[in-house]
Automatic annotation (TrEMBL):
A family per Pfam: PorZ_N_b_propeller
Stretches of the chain forming a coiled coil according to its record: none
Gene3D superfamilies, per the entry: 2.60.40.4070, YVTN repeat-like/Quinoprotein amine dehydrogenase
SUPFAM superfamilies assigned: Calcium-dependent phosphotriesterase (SSF63829), YVTN repeat-like/Quinoprotein amine dehydrogenase (SSF50969)
Protein name per the record: ABC transporter substrate-binding protein
InterPro entries in the record: PorZ_N (IPR048954), Quino_amine_DH_bsu (IPR011044), WD40/YVTN_repeat-like_dom_sf (IPR015943)
Organism listed in the record: Lacinutrix venerupis
PorZ N-terminal beta-propeller domain segment(s): 44-204
Amino acid sequence: MKIKNILLILFFPLTIYSQDYSRDWKGYFSYLDINDISQGNSKVFGAAENAVFIFDTQTNEIKELTTINGLSGETISSIQYVEENGLLLIGFENGLMQVYLESSQDIRTVVDILNKPTIPPIDKRINNFTVYNGLAYISTDYGISVYDINALEFGDTFFIGPNGSQLTVNDIAVFQEEIFVATENGLFKADVNNSNLIDFQQWQQLDNANWLEIEFVGDKLFIARDNTILYELVGNSFVQRVDYTGQINHLSKNNNQLIVTLLNAVYVYNTEPFTENSVINTLEDYPTNFTSAIINEENDVFIGTQGVFVTNKTGFGILKINLSDLEQIDEIHPDCPLSNNAFSIQATDNNLWATYGDYTVSYNAFPLRERGYSHLIGENWKNIPYDSLLGARNLTKINVNPLKPSQVFICSFYDGLLEVNNDVPTNIFNATNSTFESSSTNPNVSDIRNEGSKIDKNGILWCTNAKLLDPLKSYNITTGEWKTYDFSEIIIDRNTEIGYSSIDIDQNEVLWIGGHRKGIFGYKPNTGELKNIESEEENLPSPSVKTLKVDKQNQVWLGTDKGLRVIYNTEAFFSDPNFEPSEIIILDDGVASELLFQQYVKDIEVDGANNKWIGTLDTGVYYLSSDGQETIYHFTKDNSPLPTNQVIDISLDETNGIVYIATSKGLVSFNSETSAPDITLQEAYVYPNPVRPNFNINDEKIKIKGITENVNIKILDIEGNLVTEAESRTNTKFSGYNLEIDGGTALWNGKNMSGKTVASGVYMVMIADLDSFETKVLKLMVVR
């Protein structure tokens, strides 16, 4: 039996067709920094960090390939388009390979290299693809692997180092029936038709240099090493052609032209004879680095760009420049945010803001990030550059004024508080015009570390100011009045509490504040009563509270770097000297265990049905029932489009039921079909209406939106017969009912109480608010 199992493993294909998640998910990846470029006759492919876009040069249309379509979410290192086969080869830094098939739009995942046990994980990087005679020769950090692009399967692997050892291969070219291999330890060549290339002795080593790029044009072979010189290989001799001021990043060709890409310039050469045709230097309006470049038949040069790290700048996607007019520049990339690495996000109705500041787990603000922010308006991104932020660095938490959504306050974890109106930064609050104080003891340094913040129902913005004895500040947005609040009865040493993660406000106007070293604070502004819990003896798993949220039952859920706790009785927190927050005990296969035991909890959000969305640093996203006893969803990199399990922040657009999830490798959203309850039934409606035959009624479901918190819904046929019925807190979502209620939305799968799909006809949707006795009747037409 063991032998049979081994044989099954050996012959089981190491290829998987990736799932398409586009029905319920959307991706919002950044395409501004380009790792690699490839092209076909009428298409240009740009590989960003972990997504690809396809630009049609004839129609100017752009198609995106992301985790939503089945990409892995890992960092892309190389791509290669194969026109005759209609496929795109995608290589990753971890050795994973994926194949995009144009005809079916499927993405095929190939794990042969990734799962190869004899190669260390750090040596599996795919550096390049070279396609010749139906085979893709893959340059990797261990050697050469061969992939049959017709059969879509792997062949041999060549280890060409000393005595057949592993050797980093940077690039490959097949030239005049010989395969030339640029490695970290010399240029190698062999007969490409040799059937025994797996034998390292069949390879001839020409020298010992570190060669990075190789390309042939016509009957000439050009190579670049780890210096500033472009060489031509003549026989077995290296002839210097050009000595540049910087290292060569990339070589490519088109017909008789050679394209040489440096960090700050692109050179185009004619090779018969070898003469410089054009040079494109770093552009004044596009301060960026060049990563790669290609040229097409129309002499359009497409240049991949990448941000300058030291200045926190991003790239500009792909720049298109025609050699006949170097002044005309087109910026090509999908509409996208500034970066994949959002630190904080905030959603409202059809809007989302993202910031890109940062600090360490111990709240160290350095190095300071001079980065702008992004604003998603409907389906379009608006990116606000750092240059317009009035000097505000390390932007973190975002607060949208609920009474004036065009007004946004963004925390700066070094410079105070930035006020933005209609996406125009208008004011920055610091020690000169507010009660903020510098956290530094150096009088010449203004270090205002503002992070945890919240706007209450009265229009008061509550902020925190780290490393002070009076860390709580308030700003009356209407009157402009600032106040400060003393916590010195708890914070004896100003350096003890060096950061505050979040603030939330309960139904009794009590402020709950998460601290880094002092646990959780409860503060009553009306009476000045203050208390905190910070130790394991008080049943707090860690004094570092990373997030907290007050739910709709006025219970405080708090996440630490070592687990989850709940304060069920907020008044007892103050009155009971021995108060302890509670863990949530669940049954896991009949065994009692603590929910999210020792998990690093990054964020907690509460939806319209009082269910909990919880983001963790290494196990993805959990969607829990209101009491935490049931895990409705657990999204990970393996079962969803999450590009990584490292979740940074979550935010809910409760109006539209959209859950935005920011990870360390990009932003995605999930349509939860949940919304916040309305106050009245005045705006209640049902859709789609009419329900047409092509609508998948059982899976996509009919939505009844705009309902209040506590309702009874009856669906009747035209003769007044009851078809189905639901009631809040009874027919809840995920409980298997035909008609389910989740917050401000009800979902009907089109079935009656007998479990049969209803026939064509007109149906009456009768909604009754069980608290106010308000009623509303909607008509629904079903066409089957």
